Amino acid sequence: MCQELHEGLAWSTVPRYTFASPADSEEKDAKFAEEYLKKYYNLKAEGSHHSRMKISSPFTQKISEMQSFFGLEVTGKLDAETVEMMQLPRCGVSDVGEFSTFPGKPLWKSKDLTYRIVNYTPDMTKEDVDTAIEKAFKVWSDVTPLTFRRIFDTVADIEISFAEKVHNDFYPFDGQHGTLAHAFGPGNNIGGDAHFDEDETWTPGSNGYNLFLVAAHEFGHSLGLSHSSDANALMYPTYHYTDPKQFKLPQDDVNGIQSLYGAKQRPVEPTQPSTPSTCQNITFSAATTFRGEMLFFDEQKFWRKIPENTEVENHLIKTFWPSLPTGIQAAYEYLESDSVLLFKGAKYWVLSGYEVSKDSPKSIYLLGFSKTVKKVDAAVHDQETGKTYFFVEDTYWSYDEEKKRMDSDSPKKISVGFPGVGNKINAAFQTNGLLYLFNGHRQYEFSTEKKRVTRTLKYTSWLNC
């Protein structure tokens, strides 16, 4: 008999909709929210459709529960921010708070577990798959008394396989960009097994989905952990990429797994990365590429990430550019002129190479903004389209760099041109053909070609912390 769905994991991308009218939009949002709450917050069918407009109802109660989990303002109302959070790529298992174990606290009686790789994905070499799986288990054996031994011929405690669509466990995969994988909690038969969707692209790097990261999360479920509301935890519901070379298991996950199996008997190196104080409570005010480097600004300083260096430099703005103001609010690089434009208030400065141009600052109204615009929140130049996007409050303006003028249909709502990223952007840049948009302490990888969020990432992922 197949185990309950709450004992498995399914990372999935929630479908998005384009609506024809406000009335249609509200109705479809409500229906979408009902399905979301049924799947992730156990909303009963009889307590949803007919009661969702009541002030106190199962529907509003579940909305409040969901808002609380994700740190949103708890209103019980299906507002825009709540709908946008529902539409983000996420895991398909119901949500719980902080680290959590499955109901009944199932765990393995033996601490010496076996695993078997049943088949391989053609996306990676067998050696890379073997390495990713081995390292994913090591994440957990480093902090517990558990050991994991690979076997080849007999049935193992944890069976690992790649499959597509229907694959004999009552939880079929749904094709590319949907469910990524699922796993089952400790137990007999299918218990502990982990299945990976072959329709996805599996890689050892940052393209596609990193097998090590997904497997490490899945094996947390195989060992008995459910989800965490800690956004930095490995067991957080949404997928985000972290360089496997830099990865160390966050403390929330350590606490969870050790609540089941105890700590490793011998001393181990700390599992929580020592985060420099400069990486705590950061909110970027601007970001841009710069001759292959990346710059991230806050009020007084900026971080400089050079690709060939493992360390991220941290400098005062005035040290590099004495004539620039502090508090840069937006920035973007325009490769055609080898320049970077930096914005504050109604003015902008141009960097030609490392020098501030002599005719800086200039008025932003020379670019075609209306007088109602008092400042630019973020900016990014899209190499694919040749357009520069300026984010202003909940709108964006599109600037044609070749024609040197704003597009006639500017401004537009951010929610129309960049669905799923929220209603305000405070920093942005483009690299490898994808946009990276920052909203508060959230970072979204966005494809302008597909017009959708492709990944959510840790806010400070570019700073190695």
Automatic annotation (TrEMBL):
One Pfam match: PG_binding_1
Residues that, per the record, bind Ca(2+) 5: A331, A379
Protein name as catalogued: Peptidase metallopeptidase domain-containing protein
InterPro entries: Hemopexin-like_dom, Hemopexin-like_dom_sf, Hemopexin-like_repeat, Hemopexin_CS, M10A_MMP, MetalloPept_cat_dom_sf, Pept_M10_metallopeptidase, Pept_M10A
SMART domains registered for this protein in UniProt: HX, ZnMc
Organism: Leptobrachium leishanense
Gene3D superfamilies registered for this protein in UniProt: Collagenase (Catalytic Domain), Hemopexin-like domain
Gene Ontology biological process terms, A to Z: collagen catabolic process; extracellular matrix organization; proteolysis
UniProt: Zn(2+) 2 binding residues: C91, H217, H221, H227, M235
